[in-house]
Amino acid sequence: MTTAHTATAPFVPLLIGGRLIESQTTHWTDIVNPATQQVLARVPMATVAEVDAAVQSAAEAFKTWRKTPIGQRSRIFLKYQQLIREHMKELAAMLTAEQGKTLADAEGDVFRGLEVVEHAAGIGNLQLGELANNVAGGVDTYTLLQPLGVCAGITPFNFPAMIPLWMFPMAIATGNTFVLKPSEQDPMVTMRLCELAMEAGVPPGVLNVVHGAEEVVNAICDHPTIKAISFVGSTRVGTHVYQRASLAGKRVQCMMGAKNHAVVLPDAHQEQTINALLGAAFGAAGQRCMAVSVAVLVGAARQWVPALVEKAKTLKVGAGDAAGTDVGPLISCAAKERVTRLIGRGIEEGARLALDGRQPTLASGCAEGNYVGPTILAGVKPGMSVYDEEIFGPVLCLAEAETLDDAIAMINANPNGNGTAVFTQSGAAARKFQEEIDVGQVGINVPIPVPVPLFSFSGSRASKLGDLGPYGKQVVLFYTQTKTVTARWFDDDTSGGVNTTISLK
């Protein structure tokens, strides 16, 4: 995939017009293995001219790609999903090396993206218009879902396989061309996935990749040829992208920050619930926008704290490629510093440190990694920094509520609305929760309720800007323009006078 840029570090290329090319930038940044601090490669901060070249390549390719038969597009994604399956182990190993998550979790990252590729292969059944016959005398009306043109995606570090696969397969399958900007922290697995897409038959220029930070993001937001942008990342950057790109007249969907709560009712199955909470809080070292970062213990469930702590102590912290690891490193030294700082602030603000993961027990060879072990803060309340801010680390905050109504009120008062869950054996309580909670995605005894691609990711409130979510039925509408056609065909002997009314009779 890479060619030597220096004697010591390979470079990550750009993908423009079907060719992997070396950037002409003078600014490069290191891709660092978060478990060891080893420099894996160097990634370019692409120039504005290179972004423009990628967009122009996509615009040229759109002229023919938009006319490609839908069955031909579908067959490319059938081939693509086969290639991803064949290269699953390679992709997972590459992802773990640059991102840090365990190999099993890395395979899950790739697999959840693969599901969207499989969905894209069924585009023939997804991109269907509507028809009403004889809406007036001899008049039919029907709709066409036509591609927009050049679209773009900006993806985060925490899911370098899944989230790019949420974006470009559906955009391309619907007839658009695409410019992707992956995270500069871990773009190697994303580039490998793009190489496999080319191998599957995606034509040159249909998929392009540029790397960079703020300057490249702004260039994408401002470029007049780009029609739509999909973003997943922080609230700060997502708000900037939405405002800047919307002002430039683009369609924008931004999936952003979160503070996901799981409500635990006293009747919940204790062992199953504790396992689910800890997996959702500490998996991927808590670096998931759908991670459970707050557990609201209701009534007698407040007595579960010791059991939660004891089970969390059994989780093994270490390198993602080491056997038995449960919690890998954070993505960077800066992320580790931020998480440990927030833990300290939580204690200062009155939270009780039930389990301290700031100096975890590590296997030999892990001393240089960005490790924070499972941490549990009890007695957390709204207004504390650890409650109000998205920690994005392996920290579970325990809050308390007297009743289910109190728990619902707490969650609805939080500005974010990405995901939530309730653990209970009561159907009545579960139904009350799903009806009254003001959050886009709800789990019932499911801690991370990310839907399969038959449905759409539906975060809400401050966690989302834009009407339509990624993948599923909603994203087909996002990546297409609805054109309505009203048609009348006259018989040769039809005659009549001039009609100056609005009626179609």
TrEMBL record:
InterPro entries on file: Ald_DH/histidinol_DH, Ald_DH_C, Ald_DH_CS_CYS, Ald_DH_N, Aldehyde_DH_dom, MeMal-semiAld_DH
EC numbers on record: 1.2.1.27
Record keywords: NAD, Oxidoreductase
CDD domains in the cross-refs: ALDH_F6_MMSDH (cd07085)
Cell cycle as UniProt keyword: no
Pfam family, one: Aldedh
Matching Gene3D superfamilies: Aldehyde Dehydrogenase, Chain A, domain 1, Aldehyde Dehydrogenase, Chain A, domain 2
Superkingdom: Bacteria
Domain Aldehyde dehydrogenase: 22-485
Oxidoreductase as UniProt keyword: yes
Family assignment from sequence similarity: Belongs to the aldehyde dehydrogenase family.
Name by which UniProt lists this protein: methylmalonate-semialdehyde dehydrogenase (CoA acylating)
Organism annotation: Aquincola tertiaricarbonis
